[in-house]
Here is the input.
Amino acid sequence: MASPQAVRFAQALSRYTRSPWVTSSSSSNYPRVDLVHYPPPPSLPSSPPPLQPYPPSHQVLLPSSTASWSLSFYPQPLLNLRRRSTTGTTPAFPFINTFGFISYLASTLAFYASPLIRRQYAARNPSAPDPAVRTNDVVYAAHAVLLSTLVWSQYARRIWGFEQGRGPRESVGFAIRAVAAGCVVAVVAVTVFVATRRPSRGYDAQGWAWIDAVYAVSYIKLFVTVIKYIPQVQTNYERKSTVGLSMDQVILDIVGGVLSVAQLLLDSLLQGDWSGVTGNPVKLGLGNVSVVFDVIFVLQRYVFYPGPSIEDKKAEVADAEGSRLLHGRED
Here is the structure.
C-alpha cells in the first residue's frame, strides 16, 4: 500500500503532467499508484531506419558517379604540376570549393551516421524514410576535401614555387571571402535558434529541429556550387582563353554530375516515392548546377576561345618583334 506522501506526490505530478499517473482502487483506502510507460512521440520514430541495399541493376550507377567525380579532382593539380604554374586559373575556386566540401562532408556524415538526424528525417518523410545517403557519399566528400585543399595549396608560392599571374583574379577576392563568412554566420544563427527553441530544443521533428541545422550546413555546399565557377568563367572571358584550365577535369565532372542525378532519381523510383529527391535537394542541385557550368567551360574552350590567351598573343608579338630587331642588327 502506498503511503499518503507518495499518493500526494503522484497526484501533484499527475496535475503537472496532465497524464493518467493515478488511478482509483476500491480495495484500499488510498488510490493505487500506477507507473505508466509511454512510447516515444509519434513524430519521432523510436529507431533510425536501416540502410536499404541497392538492387543489382543499381550497382553500376553508384560506383560510376563516385569514380567520375573523384577522378575529376586529379587533372587540375597534375596540370599545374606539369606546367609549374597556376596561371589561367583563379584561387577563388579551390578556396570556396574547399569550404563547400567541408560543409558537405559535415552534413553527409550527419545524415549517414546520426541516429537523431535519421529519425527526424524519417518522421518528416514517412513514405521514404531512408535519406538516400550511402558510404560512397561520405568517402567522396572526405576525398574532395583533401584534393580541394591540395589544389588550393598550389597557389602558395612558398610551398610549391609555381608561377602565378598578376591580375585581379589571381587572388581570393573580398566577395568570395564575404560569402564564406556570411555562410558561417547563417549556420550559427540557425543552430542557436534551434537549440533555444522551447520546449523541444530541436528534438521535435515537426517543428524547428536539429535536422534543420544540418540542412543549413548542407545548403552551404549548394550555394557554393552555384557561385564557385563564376570567377573562373569571368577569368576565361577576360583572358579570352581557357589555357591553364584542365578540360579532363571538366569532362569527368560532367559525367559524375549526370550519373549522380540518375542515381538519386533511381533511388526515389525504387522506393516508389519522390520525397527522396525533395528531401535531399543538395545532391540533386549539385549534379544539375555542375553540369550547367561545365557545359559553359566546354563552349568557352572549343567555341568561343579556342586559341591562345591575350597574354600569350602579346608574348608572341613581343618575341617576333625582338627577333626582327635582332635579325636587322645582324644584317
Q: What stands out?
A: Confidence is low (pLDDT under 50) at residues 12-27, 33-39. The chain is about 65% helix and 0% strand.
